[in-house]
Design brief:
Layout (H helix, E strand, L loop, with lengths): L2 H9 L3 H12 L3 H15 L6 E7 L5 H14 L4 E7 L12 H4 L1 H4 L4 E7 L11 H10 L4 E5 L16 E6 L14 H4 L2 E4 L7 H15 L14 E4 L8 H17 L2 H25 L3 H15 L5 H12 L1 H4 L13
Parallel strand pairs: 1-4, 1-5, 2-3, 2-4, 5-6, 6-7
């Protein structure tokens, strides 16, 4: 596979080339990983940037409906929209439904849109391991907005905030009391809380829920990258297309403010650093999948099951056999980072 030719096709915005590139970066084969690294390095030189919007929420809150209505509105404004939708993978079979194109029927047929479902492959945090690489590919292909839809998540899955410029948390009316808004975790990471399904009999309830969250958000400590009034709560009806322009205006206003005050570049640099550390951890774990390491892991696992050795001693034994210089280091695995 010629990476230079593929890179040029992606830069021209060819949809088939973009799909092929995402398939490549999602592959776990060693030769594909080397090719993917070469491709991403070549595309990074273009310096293209899109507005990355992360969307999360509990199952059934209407994420796909919101994304379709929101994406169609952006297309009407002359923007190109990419959607990266992460579906949960089965722990039993490893399979995923990947039905987002079916749920976004109208958006998937728009030539200015690109929808790519990906399996989470048991990766924690609501996104897939290679979602960040897929975002970079969509930016290189010239899309103006990249929407990242996570799997249905709870309080602790905040990984999507580390790969987006603006993080939206979608909630349903009457989904919880005001105290939910001050819980640490996903609520704190959100730039905007969007109460969906503000229509019909639920409209009044959605308005009250939005007011509750708005009050709770005022109790959170202000972040330096937020202008006055953020994070904020809004109501929308994706079904009736109400409130969507207001959400986009708030997103662009927040993006413009962060760019003007230097927070945009700082945020992206910090995200790149965190994803380097995550990639390092994943690479180390991947090296444990060699035949020799798997055999040793199976033997030690059997000893742990039999009660012959503790899990901590088994882990240290394996580490000493594979990386003796690391195992011999005096620092504790739980030691705090050097303040310097």
């Amino acid at each position: 596979m010629d990476m230079s030719a593929l890179a040029q096709a992606v830069l021209r915005g060819e949809r088939r080339a973009l799909a092929r590139a995402i398939t490549l970066v999602e592959s776990g084969r060693a030769d594909h990983r080397a090719q993917a690294t070469e491709l991403l390095e070549e595309l990074a030189q273009g310096g293209r940037q899109a507005i990355r919007v992360g969307l999360s929420g509990t199952p059934g809150v209407g994420k796909s409906t919101f994304i379709e209505a929101f994406g169609l509105m952006l297309i009407e404004r002359g923007l190109r929209v990419a959607v990266l939708a992460v579906d949960p993978s089965s722990k039993r079979t490893g399979g995923s439904i990947l039905g987002d194109k079916t749920r976004m029927d109208h958006l998937s047929r728009a030539p200015q849109a690109f929808i790519r479902p990906s399996p989470s492959q048991s990766h924690l945090g609501g996104v897939a391991r290679r979602t960040r690489d897929a975002v970079a590919l969509c930016e290189a292909a010239g899309f103006d907005v990249v929407l990242v839809e996570t799997v249905g998540v709870g309080q602790s899955e905040t990984v999507v905030a580390d790969l987006s410029d603006v993080f939206l948390l979608l909630l349903a009316p009457a989904g919880g009391d005001e105290l939910q808004g001050v819980k640490r975790g996903i609520m704190e990471a959100a730039d905007m809380i969007v109460v969906n399904k503000a229509d019909g009999d639920l409209k009044a309830t959605a308005t009250r829920t939005c007011a509750d969250y708005a009050g709770a958000l005022r109790l959170l400590r202000k972040r330096p990258e937020d202008p006055e009034g953020f994070p904020k709560a809004l109501t929308v009806s994706a079904l009736e297309n109400n409130g969507l322009p207001g959400v986009w205006d708030e997103i662009t206003g927040l993006v413009d403010w962060r760019r003007a005050h230097g927070h945009w570049d700082h945020r992206r640099a910090a995200q790149a650093r965190r994803w380097f550390e995550e990639e390092l951890r994943e690479t180390v774990l991947a090296r444990l999948q060699t035949p020799q390491a798997r055999c040793m892991s199976a033997d030690l696992g059997a000893q742990v099951e039999a009660g012959e050795i503790t899990p901590a001693r088994a882990a240290l034994t394996m580490l000493e056999a594979i990386w003796p210089e690391i195992a011999a280091a005096p620092e504790s695995l739980d030691a705090p980072e050097d303040s310097a």
